């Protein structure tokens, strides 16, 4: 029998509110305001702010800031819409800054 790999759960570093599951981690190659950031296909226990236009490293997007539902810490953003077909895969995804996260197994 093969061993199953235990994936971490990601939590808010400020208040330990669970935010994302390891199985929902898409990429660790994103950059946020505070440095490295992770892209997740789903996030939980977050508040999604209003949609705003924002110019990011890879182009212009409609995004919404994402905050922790427990402590209100700004965590990153959610991609709402892109105007570049090559970037369309990002729509609906969450980017959370690494410095805002902690993980547990």
Task: Describe the protein.
There is one protein chain. Helices cover 0% and strands 57% of the residues. The chain contains no helices and nine strands. It has a six-stranded antiparallel beta sheet with strand order 3-4-8-7-6-5, with no helix packed on it. The chain starts with 8 loop residues before the first strand and ends with a strand. The model has no long low-confidence stretch (mean pLDDT 94).
Keywords:
3-stranded antiparallel beta sheet, mainly beta, 105 residues, 9 strands, globular
**Fraction of residues in helices?**
under 10%
Uncertain segments: none
Gyration radius from CA atoms, angstroms? 14 Å
Mean pLDDT, to the nearest integer, reads 94
Domain Yippee: 8-105
Pfam families: Yippee-Mis18
Organism: Brassica carinata (Ethiopian mustard)
GO molecular function: metal ion binding
Element layout with pairings:
Blueprint: E1 9-12, E2 18-21, E3 25-32, E4 35-40, E5 46-56, E6 59-68, E7 74-82, E8 94-97, E9 101-104
What would a concise description of this structure say?
The chain has strands spanning 9-12, 18-21, 25-32, 35-40, 46-56, 59-68, 74-82, 94-97, 101-104.
